[in-house]
Amino acid sequence: MVHIFCLSRRQRRAGLPLLFGMLYRHSLPRWGAVSSVPGCRSAMMAPSRPGNCAVHASQRHPAGETAHVLSIASEYRQEAVILQRSARLLGYRFQFCGFRERWVGWGTKLVQYRKALEKGLAGGRIAATDPVLLIDGWDCMLIGPASEFIQKMSSPPFSEGHQPWYAGERICGPDFFKANRIDAVYPDPGTPWRYPNAGCMAGRAEPVLELIKELLKPSGDKDTFPEDGDDQGRLHEHLLERGESGQSLPYFVDSECRIFQCLYEAEPQWQLEAAKEGQRLPRLRNTQTGQQPIVLHGNGHTGRWFMSGLWREMGLLQKVGLTVEELRHLPHDGPVPPGTVPDEVHAMLHAVKFRMTNTELKLKRERMMDAFKAGKAALEDLRLPYFLAYGSALAALREGQFQPYEDDIHVGIYSWDLAALQRQCTECTAKERDSLLKSTFDRFGFEPVQEIVDNPLQASAGNNVQQNQAVVVCPRYYIAEGWSDDMAFPILYKFTHRESFVRFDMMVFTMQFGQLWDFADGGAETSSGWRYSLFAPQPVEFEKVMTYTMPAKPLEDHYGPDWHVPRVYNYIQSLSCCKNRCQVLRVHPFDARMRRVELPPAQPWEEFKSSVRHFRMLYAKAMADSEHEFPEQKLDLYKLESKPVVLFQAASMCKEEGNVRLKNGKHRGALDKYDEGIYIIDKCREVLLTWRLIFRQIHNEKADKDRKDRGLKVADLVEPDMPREFRSDEDEERSLRLALLLNAAQAALQCQEWTAAEARASAALELEHQNKKALYRRGLARASSGDVEGAKLDFWALLKASSFDSKEAINQLQKLLPDDVIKAEFQKMRKQAAKEQKVGALLTELDEDERIAVQDESSMTKSEVSTADCVDLHMDTTHRRC
């Protein structure tokens, strides 16, 4: 029999209350065992309770063996449902276990594995020699049949010896400093997948249980392996303990990807093959080893994205009899729900999309140029050599101006220049060096960036930083265990320009292993970096300013041979273009005594100018067929172009330019500019509405927590007022929108576009229903388009709103009605208005008399007047009112 134990590597909270029973009961009618006819709904059967699922007849193998899948997870997620269906379809017996078990950390996974195996072996459900699979539950995909797994476990190399096998990956994490030691004790397999990954394990049941017990034994000075410990770190330690002491290795690594394929790669190392005759599902084939793995593990940030693509490319949901709609009510663990792509997710959420207008592009580039000039001045003041990097280098060589896709400025500096700056400090310490950098940038209008950090060690050195705390991440360090603060390697300096809100990021490039490295891609968080051949900063003229940039060759290594063609990549697509990404990173400590590296000579600007002209011609040709330089996309509240103050500035620029065009008789151009401003204000309204919803959600969560803490049935926490700055932004948005609509209506009248003029004036009246300009301009538009009745209503409303003092309204009415009709209606409306005014004044007087009467009554009571006197006084007051 084959048994699969599935655990979630992403289980986060200990003792999380689960509503699994409700979800499970709701799901059973649709998620029963798969019938022998794929897609046949009527043949589905409901499984029994999670602890003991029934076995379908189609799951039995000719030899009488039954394959088992045991999944341990904190909740029923979409990926777990698909895993369950896949297991049954491929001949495995699926069983959930471990619901509502207290989850402390990755060590809990080992404890649950041990319990499940001990119970299965003791109860006779699992034989000691049965092959078993232990895989993570929320980021694994089962695509190979149980019969193939049984056959592979009975064949070399898996049949040689009793040791279990772990999945292999090319990254040695979480501590990549163990890579050299593992390389020394574990024979070179000849493939990149040489480091064990704890997410997937295979072997015979009894040896697997013995290995898990060994992993749970005391380690170092601890009584037992803690449940909040790292299971993969413990796995590596156990291998080194046995290997470095000369003992036999406790397990092997599936480095040829015969059973497991880890997807944490810079680019796909596999190709998808359609299902052959007799196969249930499509398969992947490793392009280096030629093997077809049984389990795919979407580990790491890139692995999760690759798996998201494979759900769709393989059509796995349809093949196991599920649909996206059936799973939608369940949470998902991947970046997007299985079987969907990000664009479909946005469509499901009805996300509003906007593009950047020409005015916004111009304004954004002006702001970025202001920030660049300020940062350049700060670096020159420090005498710190620099060069534009990545997106900013593309801007210098390709566009000749900053890209609309970028929201920050990237600058590279060399570590030996940073070390020289540190040596100039009085005490030659890292703290003094960083203080000098921050104070200098502060003088030029910058402030260090604050972020919520996951790993305090990588965010700051020498500070007592808690996880998920907002801290200054300038610089962002890599610091290994046992390093002093001065040994911490500064990966990235982050500043924000106060005036323009533009980020200014400085990456530290250094020499290691004979190559130039940039570790700013998350540093040790992603165990990756970018490597280059040594290059010198290339002089270039950018926006009429002489500066320095990355040369073309490093950009080609980083973005691919077509780097001069503008594209909007997602993260995985950008990784697939890179030739310079390194998966195993070993950062050396920072040394203030490091020597300056001799750089190759750069081309003089006069010689390099022709190359830049060629790059910009290629860019211009690529943009020739593009309707918009910046395509429509969903609003990102944290981008520069989504800040209300920036949107107000852009809309005001449109209004002012429209006014100039209207004054100069360019009516069509004025209307276009006003409409552009309205489009920008629509975007601003969406931003403000989203922030209001976020504030409401925060309050609701706080109120619900308060209700639970106090044991109330209904929350009574009063929602606070919106921040004053937010209310001010809403007022400015309304005021600017009204002005743009009124001006657009006037420009449309000049263009004789009556429908457009009426629409914009009507929109203005929705904001201010008695606005005189809007009434007059809508009346003109209606009269010109033949809507006489509508025009008369607007002009009469204008006359009334102006207290019957609008000559423009009278003049327009005279064009539509005879004078005697106008005079009669005018007198009638004036009498009606006078009557309404008189009634209003009487109502005001009544209120005053009533207050006086109450005061008189109160004073007479104090003077001990009789009750009869009080009644007479009240009647007299009533008589006066009449």
TrEMBL record:
Q: Which gene encodes it?
A: PLOD3
The organism's superkingdom is given as Eukaryota
Q: Name one Pfam family in it.
A: GT_PLOD
Q: What is this protein called?
A: PLOD3 protein
Locate the PLOD1-3-like GT domain: which residues? 67-302
Against InterPro entries, the record matches this protein to: AIP/AIPL1/TTC9, GT_PLOD, TPR-like_helical_dom_sf
Gene3D superfamilies xrefs: Tetratricopeptide repeat domain
Question: What's the source species for this entry?
Answer: Symbiodinium necroappetens
The entry's keywords:
Repeat, TPR repeat
